[in-house]
Amino acid sequence: MPPLIHPSPTPNLQSEESFSTLRLEVRGMSCAGCVKAVEDLLLSQPEVTTATVNLLTGVALIESRTPIAAQPLAMMLTEAGFPSCPSDTPIRDPLNQKPAAQGHPDSPQPFQQVTVAALLLLLSMGGHFGWWAQMGWPFLSHVGVHAALATLTLVGPARPILLDGWRGLRRLAPTMNTLVSLGALTAYITSWVGLLAPEMGWDCFFDEPVMLLGFILLGRTLEQHTRRRAARAFQSLLALRPDMARCLANPNPLGDPLPGETVTQTIPVEQVEVGQWLQVLPGEKIPVDGQIHQGETTVNESMLTGESLPVLKRPGDRVMAGSLNQSGVITLVATQTAEHTTLAQIIALVENAQTRKAPIQAIADQVAGYFTYGVMAIAFLTFVFWYGWGIPHWGSANLLAAATATHWMPSPHSVQATPLMVSLKLAIAVLVVACPCALGLATPTAILVGTGIGAERGLLIRGGDVLQNVHQLDRVIFDKTGTLTQGDPVVSNSWVSQSSQDPRDLLQLAATVESGTRHPLAQAILQAAHQQGIPLLAAEGFTTYPGLGVAADIAGEVIWVGSLDWLRQLGLSLPCHSDSFSPAEAWINEGKTVVGVGSQRQGVMGLIAVEDPVRLDAARTLHQLLDMGLRLMMVTGDDGAVASHLRNRLGLSPQDMPIVANVMPGGKVDVIRHLQAQGERVAMVGDGINDAPALAQADIGISFHAATDVAIETADLILMRNRLPDLLAALQLSRATFQKIQQNLFWAFAYNLLAIPLAAGVLFPHWGFLLSPGGAGALMASSSISVVINSLCLRNIRLDDAPENN
After folding, report:
1. pTM for this model (two decimals)
2. 479 is catalytic
3. 722 in Cβ contact with 515 (< 8 Å)
């Protein structure tokens, strides 16, 4: 099985430049403003080319054209107030290092924080609405009790928020915590002025900062809980990682020792080396990728491939780390170490996908960079407006009465709701109600849920940019062999140019030459030779000509095996299609691929016909893509007649699926570029080495897990079950996820556009409504939670992933 991702960075086939990539774990981020500040700090370093920071997972993905050290970057962020460290491995729980109170290691556990937040709300609201006096406990409504409660709240559970808000203000990068801190401290200080200077007649509203911080703490705890629900699928992948492996201390290459003689040693899975012999008992997870040497069993690979049915495994079959051995004792030979297994590579790919942003997020990032400054300016203007013009214009009596209507806590002196106090309350409400956190969570939560669902169902999506491009697709281009066909062709016919020749000799020559490549047609010829017991000849100098054929030196003579057009270009005289002795035309009309075998001295020695059965699910999948409004096209290096025959078998017309045949690998790229120049968004589905440039050129490259390494590396979508209907599921999931991103961003912007004017008192002139700072805190907390819950609704999506034989 080809590895999904190489451990070292793979060059981007779209560019000659290569990039060095590293990860940092970043803590202390609370909103989109923090994300923008971290990205700006990283991009300020001359060696950093790109920097992408994920608020949800606390990961910074950094690219540079030259090797770059992670430690200096981590120290720079730490000194700026964002504790950071290099990520030793991409395989980790994305939320485990990010406690509920925005990344502070001394934050309480979720249950403890919920209890504290609920108690603060109960005590503050009880005083706010006079509940305690009505229940016979008037001392709990005393202003001194609430002053002490506010003080304990600020120095206790709210301390991390205040410190983080101060750090943001100090580094001239204010965040949501800065807004909350300014609002809470302003209310707290104003209340102390009212308490210590009664001659001013100011109200004491110590309950407001307590209610505000209580709502914030409760909201963040609930938000963290919903984040973990969003990450559940990814955490399930992490849970698949085995911890230990049972290593055979006395392996016998000729067969396993008798059970009584078996000696095993349990070692950490990280210590397993390639070539070691391992034993796996029923009910155990397979520790690393390997090849079965002894035993037969059924293996559950559902979490890796999305295939629910167990797979029968026999000696010689490959197994993947994290899959479950269900029925038998097996002995396997390790073929990959723990960090390079298919599971590890899937986890790395999913984590990278969760970090890569959709381009639409750039709008939110730009807004977030100036959001907090804008809110602070609006709060100041709100104070100036109401104090200097609003209260005198609309009448101080009505406005001051509305401002004190919701505050029933007894005060130790006569309270006079002055214009200064009311204007200050409105400014505080503006500071508190604004929510840049919703902007920061809009994209990563949807991507986290979407990529997690995809991983569960064997659909690997590389990132938010992929989701957006899928949403905008106009056309899907298909390679033929291995994509629309089963990719497992068989030799159906052969013909020799001289009657004295033995067809077995022709097959022997062809198989020997084709042993130097992994093309599906080559595998068919090799399999036919193996089934007939034909040994291979000694050969050297293997040369592959992508899209044309293969050459090798056999007994001092160069033998060519490839397409008839290629043999003609080499100067060989081909049998005429009209000649009765040449069956090539008839084979082509039947949809078979004709391969010629020849040399410079002997000319064309014969022809071999290879037939690749059509995928049973191909016709239904293509028709459903047409129903989704997508245009189709087949681009293949095969003969046009073969491609047309296949299209007819799929029940499609030339209008439904135009064909571009006899195309070199570079020609596929040219076809895609031509369509892109006409304004089309193009997806390419392919699985061969010769498809890699086209996969890179396309807006979306789609490949099967059974494809070649370079095709998988280049693809943006990988179908782990190697089933064509999963393409429909991947497109549906990508579209649904991007729609959630759009909804989240719309809600985040709409909330702030509506809530900030509401807090500024825009409804008072006609409806007499003013929003208290405590109510503003409740609204702000609910906005972030609503974004995450909306993303969680993705889990209810129905995907078209019917079995192949349906």
Report:
1. 0.64
2. yes
3. no
Please list the helix, strand and coil fractions of the chain in percent, rounded to the nearest 5, in that order.
50, 15, 35
Burial tier of 614 (Cβ tally within 10 Å: 0-12, 13-18, 19+): middle
The per-residue pLDDT for range 687-702, each reduced to its tens digit, is: 766 677 888 888 998 9
Considering the chain, what is the average pLDDT of its residues?
Answer: 77
Token reading at 369: 């960079």
pLDDT above 90: percentage of residues in the chain = 13
Whether 320 contacts 705, CB under 8 Å: no
427 C-beta neighbours (distance < 10 Å), count = 27
Give the residue carrying structure tokens 């992490």: 238
Catalytic hit among 207, 365, 479, 638: 479
**Does residue 596 come out as left (phi exceeding 0), alpha (psi in the -120 to 50 range) or beta?**
beta
Question: How long, in residues, is the chain?
Answer: 806
Tokens of 590: 């039947």
User: pLDDT higher for 461 or 754?
Assistant: 754
pLDDT at position 601 over 50: yes
Q: For residues 73 and 76, give the distance between their C-alpha atoms in angstroms, rounded to a whole number.
A: 5
> Do residues 280 and 244 make contact, with C-beta atoms less than 8 angstroms apart?
no
Beta bridge partners of 333: 277, 291
Angle in degrees, CA 791, 241, 687, rounded to 5: 70
Q: What is the spatial distance between Cα 74 and Cα 85, in angstroms, rounded to a whole number?
A: 5
Q: Comparing C-alpha atoms, which of 436, 426, 434 is closest to residue 208?
A: 426
- Single-letter amino acid code for the residue at 610: V
Q: How many helices (H) and strands (E) does the chain have?
A: 29, 26
Tokens matching residue 410? 């007894």
Beta carbons within 8 Å of 21's beta carbon, 6+ residues apart: 9, 61, 62, 63
H or E element, residue 114: helix 110-128
DSSP string of 226-270? HHHHHTHHHHHHHHT---EEEEESS--TTSPPPGGG--EEEEEGG
Q: How many other CB atoms are there within 10 angstroms of residue 405's CB atom?
A: 12
Q: Is the Cβ–Cβ distance between 697 and 14 less than 8 Å?
A: yes
